[in-house]
TrEMBL record, chain A:
The lineage of its organism: Eukaryota, Viridiplantae, Streptophyta, Embryophyta, Tracheophyta. It comes from Linum trigynum. GO terms for molecular function: GDP-L-fucose synthase activity; isomerase activity. The keyword Mitochondrion does not apply. Pathway: Nucleotide-sugar biosynthesis; GDP-L-fucose biosynthesis via de novo pathway; GDP-L-fucose from GDP-alpha-D-mannose: step 2/2. Belongs to the NAD(P)-dependent epimerase/dehydratase family. Fucose synthase subfamily. Residues 24-255 form the NAD-dependent epimerase/dehydratase domain. Transmembrane segments: none annotated. Its EC number is 1.1.1.271. CDD domains: GDP_FS_SDR_e. HAMAP family: GDP_fucose_synth. This is GDP-L-fucose synthase. Keywords: Isomerase, Multifunctional enzyme, NADP, Oxidoreductase.
Automatic annotation (TrEMBL), chain B:
It catalyses: GDP-beta-L-fucose + NADP(+) = GDP-4-dehydro-alpha-D-rhamnose + NADPH + H(+). InterPro entries: Epimerase_deHydtase (IPR001509), GDP_fucose/colitose_synth (IPR028614), NAD(P)-bd_dom_sf (IPR036291). Its EC number is 1.1.1.271. This is GDP-L-fucose synthase. It comes from the Eukaryota.
Amino acid sequence: MGSSDCQHSGSESSPFLSDKSAKVFVAGHRGLVGSAIVRKLQSLGFANLLLRTHSELDLTRQADVESFFAAEKPDFVILAAAKVGGIHANNTYPADFIAINLQIQTNVIDSAYKHGVKKLLFLGSSCIYPKLAPQPIPEDALLTGPLEPTNEWYAVAKIAGIKMCQGYRIQYSWDAISGMPTNLYGPNDNFHPENSHVLPALMRRFHEAKVNGDKEVVVWGTGSPLREFLHVDDLADAVVFMMEEYSGLEHLNVGSGKEVTIKELAELVKEVVGFEGELVWDSSKPDGTPRKLMDSSKLLGMGWKPKVSLREGLVDTYKWYTANAITKQ
Amino acid sequence: MGSSDCQRSRSERSPFLSDKSAKVFVAGHRGLVGSAIVRKLQSLGFANLLLRTHSELDLTRQADVESFFAAEKPDFVILAAAKVGGIHANNTYPADFIAINLQIQTNVIDSAYKHGVKKLLFLGSSCIYPKLAPQPIPEEALLTGSLEPTNEWYAVAKIAGIKMCQGYRIQYSWDAISGMPTNLYGPNDNFHPENSHVLPALMRRFHEAKVNGAKEVVVWGTGSPLREFLHVDDLADAVVFMMEEYSGLEHLNVGSGKEVSIKELAELVKEVVGFEGELVWDSSKPDGTPRKLMDSSKLLGMGWKPKVSLRDGLVDTYKWYTANAVTKQ
């Protein structure tokens, strides 16, 4: 029992899908990622989901987390709770971004192990990787170079979480795994005008331009940078796949492996939203990183495949946006 | 108020040495480092040291640490408490090495900030640096390459501690600093036959050979690798210097800047111990890393200087060893 990277067959690992009455604690169930995981588990027939809002259970409080695990004794834990935010938030509140995430992770992972949880999946993000990682970014790029300064606080916390899971697996032969998703989008995303990511930002801008009857939408840069996107329902599907199929030491990248240019993305969003004005590129403004793509060949090689095309995903997301997010302007 | 690396003048900072009645919490006061810091502070006239053994205060318990800080309200904190060990321990108990250190650090740093501590110094070690860092190792080498696998658990925790201090300084303008010492030696070191570092291991072996009348001591390798050593009393002196003089964002290396070959070290230890047999080199056995030296020019450039020569330090250590450690064989 040691640091094996190999994939166990379904019968050897804790069978996740075999008992839908199993108690599954989804930490962070109201966020973009957690809510998609809840939707997925419910669609599969899991009826015993353990869900707690932040005011019901503050995961940064060690004793509260311990009492919770002692009382509830979940069978499985999916750790999707985190302090997240954009560049400005990370730069302004670095203490929060590192301390809160370290506390959540340390409390949940330690309590889960100590209270007999059969398997835990820890979720992070692609920003754990070095700023200048090779593209596509393989799992072994971790800790091989300097981080992107604007999110190093969050990244260091997430790296520590991966190492916590690995340490507990090695020392205790406990089934803890980590998944690192690429750029996610979908229902429950953040569409805030100032700190949302590129995809929801474009969606919001085209929507507002359509509603306001604007003649054009101006987007910064040339549109040439390449990006990868994964619909959050695909991420939830990958989570279930990993819970069922993967019990290895190394963290796994979760991406589609498909890239689009920002230009292709913007044109697709414009079309899905139905904005009929002009899309103008202000090439005097900077482009971001030329390329950002995760190497998900390990997970894809195990047989998992994303199902949601970018077009379908944008249609789904826009439907959610118009029904749920617009009044919050 | 932000991420300034500059050294402020005495009147701007919390004056550490100006009030010897200040309450100073030395976490980890019984270890190699903590005990030296206590000796130093006592010699300077600090009479209000706050000291708690592990059984009196378990620093991994968040609520206990918070109550302690609320009740005691120390003015200053020197965080020298950690879960430490050699290669074998790190490999066997990786969960302990990462989790316990993360818990201690997160609890103490967060409680210290929240309970009005004026300044905190966090101590780590040179193993935070990449395995293949340039020699001498400058502070900027942090997170620029892969860690030494045998102590990555401890190293990731310590890196997170540095980032915690930086995050709290940036977000709260709170005076938290980090010091990363080179190889330390001195009273209270670990002389265990199986997991001690090279200097105490050599001292123990020459002593036992002397006592047993052995004809020779065989040391592995060629003796050519270069190493840096700092007597722990010098480290304590540097701690006081940093508490008084340094309020910057970046962590500081604490080393002597002086290297010796393992051969020079062994010959000196042999002489200090008074072993009169032969020192034999088994060059069929491997040497370790060719060179390991920290770049301490930043700290040395501020005016701090180590005072204890290697010879004097070995004499002092051997005196302590024969008086305190020999009966524990």
